Hints:
Layout lengths: L1 H7 L4 H19 L4 H8 L4 H20 L3 H21 L5 H23 L4 H25 L8 H23 L2
Amino acid sequence: MLETLVAEEPKNVGLRLSLTSANVSLGQRLTLEDHPEQAIAAADPNDADIRIYLAEGYANLGKSLALAGWSKEGLADIEKAIGMCRGLLRSDPENNLVPEVLYIAYENLGDLHRDLALKSKGPATQGTWRLAREAYVKERDTLLALKAAGKLPELRYKVIDEAEGKIARCDQAMARSAGAR
């Protein structure tokens, strides 16, 4: 519900903070050792639904941590989500839910690197923009694969265009930072 409200009012700081808080809370719950989903996942390593749920939780937690200023921890959780999704895809390549979580994790990874690039100065900026671009390309490619397989809901087609826009902005930023040298 908060995601919908933020999409309708993207400049509403109160709503954005509420969404961030909710994501952090969800992520913290998912990463606690005694959380039921962790116990279920450990008890049944073949339960793909629980693993998808956990991967989504790590992706959301990573984004929330990065927004709160803990980029290193956020990066670790997003990468954990991506690794979980890749493992799930190896064991069940037909599962439609895994690429849905994977593209979100790639988007979060791209956003994290973009935010770091916007804050950085000097030679590291170019590499950080490149990492953001690579993540956005993976986001787009995951979405395109779903679309080609007929498994992407039509309402998500616009996300492909949004990923293309992010890639273009990274290209522009890399060109600017290369020209500034």
